[in-house]
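Review form for a predicted model. The reviewer records the input and the model, then writes brief findings.
Reviewer: anonymous (R2)
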Amino acid sequence: MRDFSVLSDVEFEELVGDLLGAELDVLVERFAAGADGGIDLRWQVNGQTYIGQCKHYEKSSFSQLLSSAEKEVAKLTKIAPAGYKFVTSFDLSPLQKDKVFSLFSKWMSTPSDVMGRKDVDALVTLHEAVERRHPKLWVSTGLQLFWALHADIANRTSALKSRIERSMPKYVVHSGYQAAREVLETRNVCLISGPPGIGKTTLAQMLLAEHISMGYEPVVVSEDINEAWYSITHNTRQIFMDDDFLGEIAFFERLAKNEDRRLVDLVEKISGAGNKKLILTTREYILRDARRTYERLDHLDSRLNFVLELSAYRRNDRARILYNHLWHADISSTCLREIGTGGYKEIIDHQAYNPRLIEYCTGGAFDLESSGYPDRFKDTLDHPERIWRAAFDRHLVEEQRLLVLILCTLPRTAVLDDLREAYVSLCSQMGIINPERSFRDSLEVLEGTFIAIGRDIAGKATVSHANPSVTEFCLARIESDRELLSSIIASAVFFEQLSAIFKHGDGAAFFADGRVRRRERMILLSAIEKQRDHMFHSMKRTFKSRSPEREMIWLSGQGDVYAEPPGKFERRVYFLLQCLEKWGLEASAIEPEVKIVISRWENNEGGKEDALKLIAEIESGSFGSGIGEQAYSALNSWLCSTLDETEDWIHYAEFTSASGGLGAEYADQFDHFMDGEFSRWSPSPPNLDSLRDIASDLQLGDLVDRIDEALEEESREPDDDYHREASSEVESSSHDATEEDLAELFGRLVND
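Model under review:
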């Protein structure tokens, strides 16, 4: 049975009106609450007037429903219609139907004019075209079916499933949704950009939900684009989502060496596939920076036109978003009355209006009980930076504050055990007793407000900030508290905690409406500079620590695994070299760390991609004792002796490109390797474009032709069939709301 709880009372009435119109083959008019004597629906048959009443009472008791129905009798006596239908989302029993019918028998032919949940559900089944005009309903139904049939996927993506189920009831289908659907339908790829809080993530989740309901398997990328590459299967419908793929608050966070190439290759592959979709989201100003840095990304968009920029909502959309959040919120009648009698006006017309703030002001962390609600709401819109400050300072104890703060030094989705270790270390540094005991309690208090708890693709519990604005708040708090910054530096258990703080101060970014707040950035940068020696000491102390970052990688004998980056030491040395340059120190200060990396290369260990990025810095650095030559020799020996996988060949080809490329002696070896790859992969190996370049450089004409044929075949990748198709009939707000429309809409909150 369909889940009507995802609909507000307005949406339920719209559905019922469409259903009755289709069933009776008449035009059914809708009226706002309180208008025309309380009529919800009206239609004409043979010159006679019939009316209908809708009661969306899923969470109420039958006695409440019956009491509300009794109030309609006086209205009907006054209107005296030729017929009457009473429709509710309440699941009525036959006896309950009879009780309602007895109230209205004067205007009803039979008890069947009283329609409960099962009756409405049956009508939806009969009129599929009507269901298509109400995406939230059919998407939620399709989701239920998909999760039921794919319990393994439901368990693996339980956090995503929960987020979708929480956000869908409050969502309003608006013009941006339709535009995004069209881009995804025609291009297979949609990049949603826009300012913070505009609703990019929620829109992405709705698109994801729609395609899950159509049978697409969801793949959520949490770290880097390799996760998508490793998850692609040829004959399966899949939809990939990478939220904030360029970083949550600043561009420096994402896209490691050559990740732009892998991203562009993925977009190219999915845009030409018949059974794959890709959704990306990013803040508008971060995308602008990325386009300047990565020409491939800018060129790809100009050719495929897959970027959708969310901007301001229409007034009607803003009103409906606010109304849906209020309708589904646990809010007092006092607050609803204040909003319904005019308090909504300054909210929906406020220049700082955005869905994130609406969600916060209708959520459990806000005062939803006492009088003065519209004023509190407006004050939050006037000063959005106070959202986290008030809750942080007034409602959290010290241990809880430290957990929220230390989280911004870890990857944006941190493994629970890593967070515990970093938290305990910081608490111990600050003299807090028994932090292990407070950790679990703090998580319970913070979940749903400051943090979100989920699971990664390996099934491990993870913790992240509830949204990027929490991260921004935490960074601002750290930058303003020198003692706290010093404690974080001293307590760091992972090298990446220190690099994260440094990057936030140096390249980074505290953004307000897309503009860098340079003063705050300089404050943190100055604070780090004053603690340079302390910072450098902690970096060397934690150099050998394990990494809190996770990547999907392939390991011989184990296959695909989700583990810390194999190139973590290369990344750390590269970062140290950047720090030394900014601090005016000699590279020789980290010679022991460089020797560790070289030793690993000599043992065929490390991350090849990160090694290629690092080798140029080592060769140009002010190292003594032939460090540069030793590093080059070790890396060359490792790369040329481990040509086992596609990426190995690509990396070695890149390494040798500066010295003329791969020698002819590698031609037979590569030709034999490609024979094995074509046998191993169906229908063709990955990374064909790069492999073609290598074959061409080695003058393997027959192999080039073979790869070209495979590329052409790949572009004709077949699609599979599925019982559900995407909706092409979604209503939009073709006109903006009048003052009367808005008064009637929010008047429902008072009448209810």
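Findings: Residues 9-24 form the longest helix (16 residues).
Further findings: Residues 508-518, 718-734 have pLDDT under 50 and may be disordered.
Recommendation: see findings above.
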